[in-house]
Design goal:
Elements lengths: L33 E2 L29 E4 L44 E5 L2 E2 L3 H8 L25 H8 L3 E7 L5 E8 L5 E4 L1 H4 L7 E5 L5 E10 L4 E6 L22 E6 L7 E17 L8 E8 L11 E3 L5 E8 L19 E5 H14 L3 E4 L3 E2 L8 E2 L16 H4 L7 E5 L2 E2 L3 H8 L7 E8 L2 E8 L1 E4 L4
Parallel strand pairs: 3-12
Antiparallel strand pairs: 1-2, 2-18, 3-15, 4-6, 5-6, 5-8, 6-7, 7-10, 8-9, 9-10, 11-12, 11-14, 12-13, 13-16, 14-15, 15-16, 17-24, 19-20, 20-21, 20-22, 22-23
Length: about 475
C-alpha cells in the first residue's frame, strides 16, 4: 500500500519478507521521509520499546517512498540483513552486524540502522517482579555512625545530576483495550503536566486505552494522550489532576553536542524504574529507521544521537542528559544482536548501541502536539527509493500508488528536480540513501531553506529550495 509521506510521496509497501529475518528485502524501493514517503523498514533490531516479536512484513511492490520525512507504509519494512543488501535489516531480535562504512558518514546506507524500539513489556516482566519480591530476610547491622556516611556529593557529579533529574521522570504504563501494552519512560516538559515520551510507548493506549505515570516517590497519576507523531516517534501525554509542584527538566541544545560528551540515561529497563546509566555520545547524525516489529508497524526515522549508555526495553521515552543535567535527547532505540533478555523475557538487551531523538527536534514536535494535537513534517515533495545503496537518494520513476514521483508545484518541482535524479547532499550532510534523506529533512521545519546537491546524467548540480509541510501522520 502506498501513502503520501511528509517529505514527499509515501512509497508503496514492500512485499512481505521471508520467514528468515536475514533474508533480503522483497522490494528495494521505498519513499523517503525527507520529501518522499518511504515504506517501513524490515523488523528492526531490538528497540527499547519493542512490543512485537516478529519482523514487520516486507514491501509489496517496488515503488518509491516520499522523501519529505513522512512515515512509511505499514508493510514497507524489508527483511534484508542489517544494513546490507536492499533490506533495512534483520528482525530486531536477530540483527546482523552492520556492514563496514563505505567511506561516508556511518557507512552510508549500510549505516541506516533498523533499530528496535525500547519499550518494555507490560508489568515490567521478570526483572520488575524480582525487584519487588527480592530476599529481605537478611539484615545488616552497622556499627555506630562515625560520620563516614555523611557524604556531601558535588551537585555537578553524576549522583548530583541524577538527584535533580529523577523527580521529574516518570514510568509510563500503557494498556490497550485488548489488554496489550507496555512500560516506558517519560519526563516532565512543563508545569501544566505535559510529559514527553515516545510514540511507541503510548501507541497501545491511543484509542481508548489506559495510561498511568508513576513518579519515583510512588505517586501515580492517570494520563491521556495529547498528541503523537508516528514518523518522529514522539508523543505528549498529560497528567490528570497534575500536582502543582512539577519541575520540568531543563532542555539542552543537541546541535552543540560533541562526540565524547558524557551522557546520563534515565529509564525503567525491564520494568526496573528510576534506573540511571551513563556513557558518552558515540556519534551524531546517525541515520536510524526503527519500528516495534509488529505486522502493522510503521517506521520512524531519525538523525540520531548514538550513545553507549546502557539502554534496554523500558528505557524508551526517557531523557538522555548531558553532564549538566540538561536533556539532549529522548532514548528511543537500540541495536541488538540476539533475543532473550533479562529473566528470559524474549527481549534483547543493550550492547552499547543506543539511539536518541535529538531534543531540538523533539522540542519542536512536542510544542506542535501540545498546540494542535497533530505533528507537522517538512517535505521536499518527491518520492525516493529506499534501495540499499550508498550512492544517494534516487527520485523514483513512479510515486506511491501511481502518483507523480515529483509533486506538481511542490518544492522539488519548483527547484527543477526530476525522476532519476540522485540527491547526494542536503546542505553539508552527505545523503547516502532515501532513509537518510528522510531523517535529515525531518530535522528541519517547514519553510526552512536548504541546498540540495544531486546528480543527473553523470553531472553534479546544486539547487536551493524551501521545504514544504505536511500535517499529521496520515495526510
Amino acid at each position: 500500500m502506498s501513502t503520501e509521506n511528509e517529505g514527499n510521496v509515501v512509497p508503496p509497501a514492500p512485499s512481505a519478507p521471508p520467514v528468515p529475518v536475514e533474508s533480503p528485502a522483497a522490494s528495494p524501493h521505498q519513499a523517503a521521509q525527507g520529501g518522499v514517503t518511504p515504506p517501513p523498514p524490515s523488523a528492526p533490531p531490538h528497540m527499547p520499546g519493542a512490543y512485537g516479536q516478529a519482523g514487520a512484513p516486507g514491501p509489496q511492490d517496488g515503488t518509491g517512498s516520499p522523501a519529505d520525512g513522512s512515515w512509511p507504509p505499514p508493510s514497507s519494512y524489508g527483511v534484508g540483513g542489517a544494513g546490507g543488501g536492499s533490506g533495512w535489516g534483520s528482525p530486531y531480535q536477530h540483527q546482523q552486524p552492520a556492514p563496514k562504512p563505505a567511506g561516508r558518514r556511518g557507512g552510508l546506507v549500510a549505516a541506516v540502522l533498523v533499530a528496535a524500539l525500547v519499550a518494555g513489556g507490560l508489568g515490567g516482566g521478570i526483572g520488575y517482579t524480582l525487584a519487588r519480591n527480592g530476599d529481605t530476610t537478611s539484615t545488616t547491622v552497622s556499627a555506630s555512625d562515625t560520620g563516614a556516611s555523611q557524604i556531601k556529593r558535588d551537585p555537578s557529579s553524576i549522583a548530583g545530576v541524577a538527584a535533580r533529574a529523577l523527580p521529574s521522570t516518570v514510568t509510563i504504563e500503557a494498556e490497550g483495550n485488548g489488554g496489550q501494552g507496555g512500560t516506558g519512560t517519560g519526563f516532565v516538559f512543563d508545569v501544566q503536566g505535559h510529559i514527553v515520551t515516545n510514540n511507541h510507548v503510548v501507541a497501545e493506549a491511543v484509542d481508548g486505552g489506559r495510561l498511568t505515570a508513576t513518579f519515583p516517590d510512588g505517586k501515580k497519576y492517570d494520563a491521556e494522550v495529547v498528541g503523537h507523531a508516528q514518523g518522529y516517534d514522539v508523543a505528549v501525554i498529560k497528567l490528570k489532576n497534575a500536582p502543582s509542584d512539577l519541575k520540568p527538566l531543563p532542555l539542552g541544545d543537541s546541535d552543540k553536542v560533541a562526540v565524547g560528551d558524557e551522557t546520563i540515561a534515565i529509564g525503567a529497563p525491564f520494568g526496573l524504574s528510576n534506573t540511571v546509566t551513563t556513557g558518552i555520545i558515540s556519534a551524531k547524525n546517525r541515520p536510524v529507521a526503527s519500528s516495534d516489529g509488529s505486522s502493522d508497524s510503521k517506521a520512524s526515522y531519525m538523525s540520531a544521537l548514538q550513545t553507549d549508555a546502557s539502554i534496554n526495553p523500558g528505557n524508551s521515552g526517557g531523557p538522555l542528559l548531558d553532564a549538566r543535567g540538561a536533556v539532549i535527547g529522548i532514548n528511543s532505540a537500540i541495536q541488538s544482536t540476539s533475543s532473550g533478555g533479562f529473566g528470559g523475557s524474549g527481549q534483547s538487551g543493550s550492547i552499547g548501541l543506543g539511539f536518541a531523538i535529538p531534543i531540538n527536534q523533539a522540542r519542536y514536535v512536542a510544542q506542535q502536539l501540545i498546540k494542535t494535537g497533530k505533528p507537522v513534517y517538512a517535505k521536499i515533495g518527491a518520492s525516493v527509493s529506499l534501495e540499499g545503496t550508498t550512492d544517494g537518494a534516487k527520485i523514483t520513476d513512479q510515486g506511491a500508488g501511481g502518483s507523480d514521483p515529483v509533486e506538481p508545484g511542490g518544492p522539488a518541482d519548483k527547484a527543477g528536480l526530476k525522476p532519476g535524479d540522485v540527491i547526494t547532499k542536503l546542505d553539508d550532510r552527505v545523503i547516502d540513501s532515501g532513509p537518510t534523506l528522510i531523517g535529515e529533512i525531518w530535522t528541519h521545519q517547514p519553510g526552512d531553506k536548504v541546498t540540495l546537491t544531486y546528480q543527473r546524467a553523470g553531472k553534479e548540480h546544486t539547487v536551493d529550495l524551501t521545504l514544504g509541510s505536511r500535517i499529521g501522520d496520515n495526510g
